[in-house]
Fold each of these.
Amino acid sequence: MSLSVTTRRTWCALAGAALALSSLCVGPLAAQPRPARAGTPLKVFISVDMEGLAGVVTNGDVGGTAGDYQYFRKIAAQEANAAIEGAIRAGATEVLVRDSHGSKQNILPGDLDPRARLLRGASTGPKNMMEGIDSSFAAVVFIGYHAKAGTPNAILAHTSNGNVVDFSINGVSLPEGGYNALVAGLYGVPVVFVAGDRAVVDQLRGLLGTVDGVAVKEEIGTAINGLSPQAAQDAIRTGVERAVRARARYRPYALTPPYAMVLAVRQGGKSFEGAVAASPGTYTFTSPDLLRVLAAFNALK
Ligand SMILES: [Zn+2]
């Protein structure tokens, strides 16, 4: 998603951080190859954000005209293509890429591997970054993801937009990758792989349990020490192939309904039927329907 300029954080200095990029690939050992049986469909869903792409360090890299957005939207397509290739090597028969950043019109359609379909543009539905997911998919992959609002030592950390301070369901504070994993879990689909900064990989592993992934960069103050785009794409290709082959090891993410949302925002004043403004800047809403809770989140954030 997008992060407004006014909410850009001043990153804590992290003096003397030593990086071991060779250890950035996390996740289980590769499973034995299990080729898809002839005629058996294997559908993989890939959600592509931008803040966690290799090389991205400021808001100017992911939008507007002042920075390197035109360059990084190409990188978004290339990281998506690496994930598509990995999925197909693992036996995927169909791949759907959801452009998930800001306007959802970042990847130029002609830049995407033609073996995949592209879900492009904003939608009015509550699935948002997961628009298009359903129970026909076998695995979900996150590319270019970032940590939630308020995460220390993270690149462009935010939750949905700059107004959100925290979003929790049933007491679990959720990054975008967390509630998107819940949407996939609603359809019984596990998240198998995440690419982004070190903070989001750690955050999603803490939340989802076992998930494969690659940290394409680490923070040093307001700077990043990261993989080259080529090295990141190589790691994504290899990692997605490994994770999709091993998909049976990963569990769909779920919380027990009813879903009790608490949303803290900087600027309140919005309304949604059934939601309560519990205090200035804090809304609560509870429903047995996760998508209804997400609709409330989208209306109130
Ligand atoms: Zn984004």
Amino acid sequence: MAEAFDVVVVGAGAAGLMCAMTAGQRGRRVLVVEHANKPGKKILMSGGGRCNFTNIGTGPANFLSANPHYCKSALARYTPADFIALVERHGIAYHEKELGQLFCDESSKQVVRMLLDECGAAGVRIEIGCGIEDVRARDEGGFALRTARGTFHAESLVVASGGLSIPSMGASGFGYRLAQQFGHVVLPTRAGLVPLTLSGTHLERLQDLSGVSLPVEASCNGQSFRNFMLLTHRGLSGPSILQISSYWQPGDALRLDLLPGADAEAFLRAQRQARPAAELRTVLSEQLPKRFAQRLCEAWLPNRPMRQYGERELRDIAAQLHHWPVTASGTEGYRTAEVTLGGVDTRELSSATMESRRVPGLYFIGEVVDVTGWLGGYNFQWAWASGHAAGEVA
Ligand SMILES: Cc1cc2nc3c(=O)[nH]c(=O)nc-3n(C[C@H](O)[C@H](O)[C@H](O)COP(=O)(O)OP(=O)(O)OC[C@H]3O[C@@H](n4cnc5c(N)ncnc54)[C@H](O)[C@@H]3O)c2cc1C
């Protein structure tokens, strides 16, 4: 005999738990089915163990999607302030790190505990370590899920199974396959918020500087992010690179401003005037990490005493420092990516409820949908907001 629920949520991650507690609070009988061995694994590992659970500046401009309008309604109806109020009700201490990013003072475990407590209080049942074998629409309406723990019937089915990033944490293509099974279009997926790899001479020249970090402005396809860049043994990482990686595709030009906010030409001219005998690498070492400045001057820039540079050459060096071209060979892929770009096409989903326009009672929330946030708490805010929107109606 199948057990019947009003709502079955697939995935006990950020979006799934928020949806389950919201639906449970409305008196719906809710089951969450999770195939991993514990709930909220990505929440636990997020923000270096402190969970960057929201960003107080969240707005639609912080998201990538084929339909940039889609996220507006849900984000407006469940805001960072709503989630902060929940966090405060549970006595979780938090702080703003930078750029509106809120982190737990202690541990991301507190966020998972909070969501599980809310689910518990709302009577939500959570089946952990429960794989799903088959899902089908029932002739009499609703859905049947065949799982390792028996068959469950659901009036509403909410897919919150996340993206493909970090397969070792339980990520699977389940949600995409299910969407296709029910006739939905799935837009091509790729790794986002991910380190970029270098190859050839670029890699050879920079590889041994692994660990060096410097502030840059990274630009690609009309988007720019100013923050730190970290050199790694495979290429480039750090917040500015992770951010721009979501806008980069193989073959795209990537430019780095190595002296963001500075006027390199005026600086170099002033140095030539003040210390004509100083070499370029010495002068640049005062603005850039020393080893990096030296490498620039060994491998790319002509290194001479400042007095030997003419006006044109100085202008040219300044221009290179502000528009350093980088040819990335690829990304580190889903193994290290924080998010998956692309996913279930929003054109066949309701932006108010996240419900399928094709199959009544079927919902898609969180990262499985073609809505991807920047680095900095935006992805969790989307998970909370889309989970809440579906939980209010499912
Ligand atoms: C290392 C790392 C750090 C991050 N840090 C941050 C951060 O600080 N701030 C931020 O905003 N975002 C962060 N993110 C991104 C954020 O974790 C995700 O965007 C967010 O978790 C998406 O929520 P979700 O509920 O859609 O998916 P998930 O949280 O991934 O949850 C999906 C759940 O579905 C389960 N599942 C998958 N397939 C099945 C199946 N077939 N059957 C049953 N269950 C299934 C999974 O096991 C998982 O528990 C980070 C991501 C990573 C990888």
Amino acid sequence: MTAKEQGSDVDPISRFLDPERPLDCDEGRRLGCAGFCCCLVVRLKQGEADPGKPDATGPRCVEKHPGTGRCIYQNVEDSRCTVYAQRPEVCGSYDCRNDPLLTIVLEEGFRSIGQLVARHTQRIKFGIEP
Ligand code: SF4
Ligand code: SF4
């Protein structure tokens, strides 16, 4: 329990967002997350294998489902990762709680990195909260 939580009732969202606590995706799911981060660009590191195509060379991003824009390794039924044990490093280290870009993707969809950066810059310029 963090100092903030001691002796007070902390609502679940505040607890989830508390930077003093490690990210808890199970808690996030209970709050409504459907694996939202799996619609972001998943870039593989130099030399890192694609979980479903270990011998592939070429594009260094995990493929997206053409219809949903979600990662091809996300289970459409329960939105969980089907390659969890072999998932890319970036998936294991990602923390949605400090990523304003995810908000833009969820609100507007993902079309290109250029669109994402432009919208992010615009929001900062006009002081729009993520
Ligand atoms: S990191 Fe991804 S799966 Fe975990 S709570 Fe955030 S959006 Fe959901
Ligand atoms: S590899 Fe797994 S955790 Fe990573 S984006 Fe795809 S479904 Fe999500």
